[in-house]
Each structure stands twice: as C-alpha cells, then as structure tokens.
Design brief:
The chain has eight helices and 24 strands. By secondary structure, the protein is mainly beta. Strand 9 and strand 10 form a beta hairpin. The longest helix has 11 residues.
Length: 513
C-alpha cells in the first residue's frame, strides 16, 4: 500500500497537465539542474550511506557539472520561438514598396515572412530584402553541493528522521545567434527618424539590437548569469526497512535564490526556477534484485513532486491570430495618432515590443520528476566498483498567467501601412492590407485587452526524458567515500512538448563522516 500511495503521488499531477492551441511563443525556460531526483544529484548518493557510516551520520557530495544544447535541441527551440507553421529556423524579410507590389490591396507574397517596417527598417529604394536565421544557444557550468544528516535512529540502529540540504551554484550563458543574409540592401537606411523617434536601421541584425527596444532584443552576443539555482531543504523519515528493500519519504521547501524573468532579451539566462518559492514531497525506494559472489544488482526509484507558488514577471505577448504581433508597429495612444495625422508624418509610431511587454502574475503549479535505475556493484575487500544506469522522467503543467487590465495596451492601436495616423485591425507581421487602413479623422482602431494572446507568453506543458549513466569507485571503510563520473542526455519524443535536446556531464566526490 505504501508503494501504491507513492505511485499515485507521482501520477496525480500528470492528470492536470494541459496544452493549448497557441499560434506563437515568446518565452521558454530550461529545466534547472541538480534538483531533487535528478540523475546528477541522486546517482550513487542515497540515504543508505547514512546507515553504512559509523561516525556522526553525515554525508556530503560535491558535484561539478556542465552541459549545453545539442544542434537538434537548438533547431527545436528556434521553431518554438518562430511563428507557427515555420518548418525551418529562418525567415524571409521584405520591405513593402507600393510601386513594386503585385496587388494594390495587399502584399501577400508567399516567400515573405516578416514586414521590414515593423522593425524600424526603411531604405532609400524601399526594396530591402534579407533572410534571417535563428540559432538558440545555452551552456551551463555549475557546482552542486548536497548534505545529508541523520537526526534520529530507529530501534534497529538504522536512520529514522533525516535532513537534507542542497545548493547548486551555476553560470548560465544563453541567447540566440542571429545570422542574416542581405539579398537587397535597398540603398541603405533612410536618414530620418522612425519608430520610437529613433533612427531607421538597415538590417534585421541592427533592428534586434536597437537601444530603443526595452524588451525582446537579440543582442550580438550571448548573455550570462551567475547565481545560486535555488536552495532545497528537506526533512524525511526512513519509513520502511528490511534486508531486501527500504523506503524513505520527505517533505521540503524550495527557496528562490536565482533571478526572475525580465524579458529584456529573447531566451535570457535564468538561474533556478524563475524565482518561485515552492514546496515539495517525495520518496525513495530501494530493492535488492540480484546477488552472486561479489556482484550485486540493486534497483532504485526516486520521485519528487513540487508545487511552485506564483510571482510577478515581465512577459511579452502576441496578439490573437497574429504570430509575432509583439513586434508590430503601433501608435501608443490616440494623441500620438492625432499628431501623425496633423503633421502628415508617415514614420512616427511605437515599436510593439515596448507596448506588449507587461508585468503579469505567473503560476507554474505542479511538476513531477522521477528516476528509475539499476546499480551494479562489484565488491573486492575494502573497495568496490559501481555502475548506475537509469531513466529520468519529468513533467510539468503549463503556466497560468494573469494580466491585469492594461491601460497602456487598451490605449494603443496597430499602425496602418500608410502611416499619418491611420490605424488597422487587419495588418499582420507579414501582410499589409491597404484598404484596411482607417484614417484618423474616420476613427481610431483601439486594441482591446481581449486581443492579447495570454497563452503565447506562458511556458507550455512539458514532458521530457533523460537516459544517464554513472561510474563510481568506492572505498569501503568505517565511513565510506567515493569518486564518480557521469553523463546524461535529455530529449522529448513528441514535438508538441518543445523540450530541447541537451547533454550534461558531471563528476562526484562523496564523503561520509
């Protein structure tokens, strides 16, 4: 019955994982490393060490680790950020030009993915064309420290209550590498002010690095962040112990020590769980599977379920039915449109990313994480070799976002392609429907808060898998000690879950005292 209850605790959160019909995404956060039940944390370092030591009942492991996205993982993540339906990591950019478009009603050119003027690009000839490719990158190095301590003993001498604390220190470097091939520079950028009252630019590379963009930028180099990736504290109890199996359970808390999302850049480096406080509970089971001579095989099942509390973060939003609508040019209010109308200014306006990035309340809710493995040991006198191979399963709910009514958003409007104060509801990031423009003297097409695609800014429900192996050498003495090395590979079997492939390697030094 105890094992059944554990299985139910691991499965219940899975029943409330959901996905939505989302046309584009603006945010993704990588799963933190060195968390409870993760391979680099638990492999060859479990509570049985507390029973085997004849000292003060303490155990410590120090784990340097590092890893990065694979090429396949980078491609998956690029498609995640790009408009839905894009099957490559590249987009075609073209500047609208009334004298060359094939239709007086719209420039719906199949090969065109982005309208250049949304990005403050306007050239002398009005013929700018380029192909821009996106390559998300992330690398990570860290030092994980985990300490266990026996707090009481049972009548048979084994550990009863125990305490565990962990502290991973990380350096996360992430960003998006933007490669642009300019097919037609249009004679260079015009020498005049455009969106945000800033100079026009002549390339997408320059557009994504504009200092007038407060959010959603893609700088020319990756950003990095140092920090403690959340502190975990647990209190547990060795609830069942016999010669062939044992089980211990715990409750714990997650203290946010990393950074929170600011959305200043796309795919910014995040240390920890986006600064969410959390509570956790879980169990660990061990079974003696096989023994012959100096060889022993044991099976371990480690599970952790946690609930992360809500907090406030900055997120960028697309518009309903308008992928990448966060980058569309706008008028921030009717006064700005009126000024453009009165002065016949076709160039003024506000970059949409400065309007559609707002502070929201983010609720991650449940996630669950379990590792199942086999450990082969070869004992010889006062030392032994240990090989652990296993599988880790992780699942999390999609985030729930709450956006308070924003007067800034509800006062704005999408700028018409003709400018001069005209607004529209039909324009998209790629198409300009000319007859949809409404002159300012005939009306002002407000954007409603209902036009905001809330789900575009939330992290989707995720399922990921890890295969791993750890090889260790252990000294069997009064208080055992060990050295180990390991590696893991994380992937997803379904495209909808958007978990990018990545690898991780680690070393371990373990002591008991």
């Amino acid at each position: 019955m105890r094992i059944l209850r554990l299985v139910l605790l691991l499965i219940i959160p899975m029943g409330i994982i959901k996905t939505g019909n989302i046309t584009s995404h603006t945010f993704f956060s990588m799963r933190p490393n060195f968390q409870s039940a993760m391979p680099e944390r638990v492999s060859l370092f479990r509570n049985e060490l507390l029973d085997e030591c004849q000292g003060f009942g303490g155990a410590l492991e120090i784990v340097p680790y590092g890893g990065q996205l694979t090429c396949e993982g980078s491609v998956k993540l690029a498609r995640f950020f790009l408009p839905a339906g894009c099957h490559t990591s590249c987009l075609n950019v073209r500047e609208v030009n009334a004298s060359t478009e094939s239709s007086p009603l719209a420039d719906n050119i199949p090969s065109k993915d982005l309208e250049a003027r949304h990005f403050n690009i306007q050239t002398v000839n009005g013929t700018f064309s380029s192909r821009v490719c996106f390559k998300p990158e992330q690398s990570k190095v860290g030092l994980g420290i985990c300490y266990k301590q026996t707090m009481s003993h049972k009548c048979d001498g084994t550990a009863g209550f125990w305490f565990e604390g962990s502290l991973p220190i990380e350096r996360v470097e992430s960003g998006i590498k933007l490669c642009e091939t300019i097919l037609d520079n249009g004679g260079g950028a015009v020498d005049e002010l455009g969106l945000d009252n800033s100079p026009r630019v002549g390339s997408m590379r320059a557009a994504f690095a504009q200092p007038n963009w407060k959010h959603g930028r893609i700088p020319h180099k990756k950003c990095h962040k140092w920090g403690v990736a959340d502190i975990e504290l647990k209190i547990g109890y060795n609830s069942f112990n016999c010669t062939t199996c044992n089980m211990n359970s715990y409750i714990g808390m997650v203290f946010p020590t990393g950074n929170r999302v600011r959305s200043r850049t796309v795919f910014e480096p995040i240390v920890g769980n986006n600064h969410h406080f959390g509570v956790s509970f879980g169990s660990s089971l061990a079974f003696d599977m096989w023994h012959k001579g100096c060889y022993t095989v044991k099976m371990y099942i480690d599970g952790d379920t946690r609930y992360l509390m809500s907090n406030h973060q900055m997120r960028s939003f697309d518009l309903v039915g308008k992928p990448w609508g966060r980058y569309m040019e706008t008028y921030k209010n009717s006064n700005a449109a009126a000024e453009a109308f009165n002065t016949l200014n076709a160039n003024s306006g506000t970059s949409g990313i400065n309007i559609f990035t707002r502070c929201v309340r983010v609720s991650p809710h449940f996630s669950t994480n379990s590792t199942t493995c086999l450990v082969l040991s070869k004992d010889a006198d006062c030392r032994s070799w240990q090989l652990e191979v296993g599988y880790n399963f992780f699942a999390r709910q999609s985030e729930v976002l709450e956006l308070p009514c924003s007067t800034l958003i509800s006062a704005s409007a999408l700028k018409g392609i003709s400018g001069e104060g005209s607004t529209t509801l039909a324009r998209t990031i790629k198409s300009n429907f000319r007859l949809s423009d409404v002159p300012f003297n005939q009306g002002y097409e407000f954007i409603s808060n209902c036009d905001i695609d809330i789900e575009s800014a939330s992290h989707p429900a995720t399922i990921s898998n890890i295969f791993y192996g750890t090889l260790g050498y252990r000294w069997e003495r009064e208080c055992p000690a060990f050295l180990a090395v390991g590696a893991s590979y994380e992937f997803t079997a379904a495209e909808v879950n958007h978990t990018p492939d990545r690898w991780l390697v680690w070393g371990k030094v373990g002591l008991t005292f």
